């Protein structure tokens, strides 16, 4: 198994812990992604044809990264993820609402919180 595969497997595990963990666990993971900017920037899931599961995984990673360094980039990414999922026939609102409930409500950059972004995307 190469480094890319190992990294994707680790990221999948982190996303699972993020989704199933308590609010304290999610906050701690968001802090780690803020602290380790290079890892956060490079952490991506394999590109796949959008399905409900891949969309959910992508949104959980979006939530975990908590807007990264720039709300504008985060909004563009969210719009693109939603557009691709809808074009593939994915019922996006329930998934967006589920991930919003796990997301930060902190308005980091004055453009709304990650939770608000996800709810507005519904």
Return residue spans where pLDDT drops below 50 for at least 5 consecutive residues: none
Task: Quickly give the structural class.
Answer: mainly alpha
Strand content: under 5%
Radius of gyration: 14 Å
**How would you spell out the order of helices and strands?**
HHHHHHH
Question: So how many helices?
Answer: 7
N- to C-terminal separation?
38 Å
Helix content: over 70%
Descriptive report:
The chain has 122 residues and is mainly alpha-helical. The chain has 7 helices and no strands. Helix 1 (3-20) crosses helix 4 and helix 6 runs antiparallel to helix 7. The model has no long low-confidence stretch (mean pLDDT 95).
SSE blueprint:
Layout: H1 3-20, H2 23-35, H3 37-42, H4 52-65, H5 71-87, H6 92-102, H7 114-121
Describe what is shown at a glance.
This protein is mainly alpha-helical and 122 residues long. It has helices at 3-20, 23-35, 37-42, 52-65, 71-87, 92-102, 114-121.
